[in-house]
Amino acid sequence: MDSFNFKKLARDAGSALSRVVQLTEEKLGTSERTELDAHFENLAERSDTTKLWTEKLLSDTEAVLTPNPGNRVEDFLFDKIDKKRPNRLSNLEYLGLDMIDAGNEYGPGTAYGSALLKVGQCEQKLGTTQRDFIAAANHSMIVPFRKFLEGEMKTIMRERGLLETKRLDLDACKNRVRKARSMLGTQNKEGPSPEIVLRQAEQDLRVAQAEFDRQAEITKLLLEGIGSSHASHLRCLHEFVESQARYYAQCHQFMQELQRDLSSMPKPEPPSGPTLSSFSGTTTSATFISSGRSSPRFGRRARVLCDYDSRSSDELNLKMDEIINVRDPGDGNSDYYLGERGIEKGRVPRAFLEVLDD
What DSSP string describes 103-141? Predict the structure, then answer.
């Protein structure tokens, strides 16, 4: 038994060395190689294209359904050890829970608290719908694509690798036959005669040719099955689009309902007086200081709360704490006064002013 294993090991090592020599000679251009027919090459190219794009589409779809890379790695590991994936909440569900907690904290009887509760409940429904879509998309596209890559495509790649091995063995046998024929008519001082070497080489060639042809036929049949895989992937694509369309339709319905609910709630009153946002982004500019006396046309005085740089030619530059004369513009624009400072006149934003005269 040990002798048999040693002989088999030596034979395998000799075959591997022969393949390495053959491949090296082909790359150096000193040896010919057996080429497959054009139909087979087209099938092989289609297989490579299918493998490449299926892997890309699978990766892209997983990234869409599970944007967090850490979660994708975790899911992959759980799948490998055949354990159930963790039932984690989506970002929408976390947002919804925090909005609901905030709404309860502010008070459901307040306008803001009531709105937070309504929006939070909608976000939770969106999160649940998203979870259902991810499950449907995983079933319709992720699972079939991964099964194809790990099953059919892996078999094809294995058989193509075996075919390449058979092809190297065949070409190595062809080289041995050519060398044996070139030795005919010469005398070997040691070992078998050239005729015996040639007969053995030709016998090895016939065996190698038969094994190569058989493997080529097996591989070709597998490659031709790629067409049916495309049809299966097309069905998967249809199912994916249908589940995605349902998901977006449900989301649109939820958002329309939320908009109607919010629009039926009392509108908040605009804040009176200046707000913090009114004081941001202003710079100091040179201005003239008014004497503080009201003119007949501008009957009220106002103090400037914050520096303001005019944004158009019909506005005044303002400096904090200066006193100007103002009046209503009369055009229904509640955001601006008409201001007067000496001989200068122009629009000024009300948020930057504190009216001193009633």
Answer: HHHH-TTSHHHHHHHHHHHHHHHHHHHHHHHHHHHIIII
Q: How many separate helices (H) and strands (E) can be counted in the chain? A: 9, 5
Name the burial class of residue 14, with classes exposed (0-12), middle (13-18) and buried (19+) by CB atoms within 10 angstroms of its CB. exposed
Q: Which positions ≥6 away from 134 have C-beta within 8 Å?
A: 65, 66
Tens digits of residue pLDDT in 326-345: 888 777 777 888 888 878 88
Task: Return d(Cα 231, Cα 223) in angstroms, integer.
Answer: 14
Task: Give 86 or 109, the one with higher predicted confidence.
Answer: 109
Q: Is the pTM of this model over 0.85?
A: no
Q: How many other C-beta atoms lie within 10 A of the C-beta of residue 149?
A: 16
- Report, in angstroms and rounded to the nearest whole number, the Rg of the chain calculated over CA atoms: 41
Distances (CA, A) of 91 to 205, 320, 344: 65, 45, 55
Split at pLDDT 50, 70, 90, the class of 290 is very low
Write out the two tokens for 235: 């069905």
| Measured distance CA(337)–CA(324) in Å, rounded | 11
DSSP string computed for 297-326: SS-EEEEE-S-B--SSTTB--B-TT-EEEE
Token code pair at residue 214: 């058989």
* Pairing status of strand 300-304 against strand 323-327: antiparallel
Maximum alpha-carbon separation in the chain: 134
Residue 283 has pLDDT above 50, yes or no: no
* pLDDT tens track for 59-91: 999 999 888 777 667 766 766 666 666 667 888
CB-based contact 234:94 (threshold 8 Å): no
- pLDDT of 224 reads 95
**Lowest mean per-residue pLDDT among 9-13, 30-34, 143-147, 220-224:** 9-13
For residue 133, how far is the Cα from the chain centroid? 17
Q: Are 287 and 318 in contact (CB under 8 A)?
A: yes
Q: Summarize the confidence of residues 121-138 as an average pLDDT.
A: 93
Which residues have C-beta within 8 Å of that of residue 180, sequence separation ≥ 6? 194, 197, 198, 201, 202
Strand (E) or helix (H) holding 18:
helix 2-28
d(CA 170, CA 26): 13
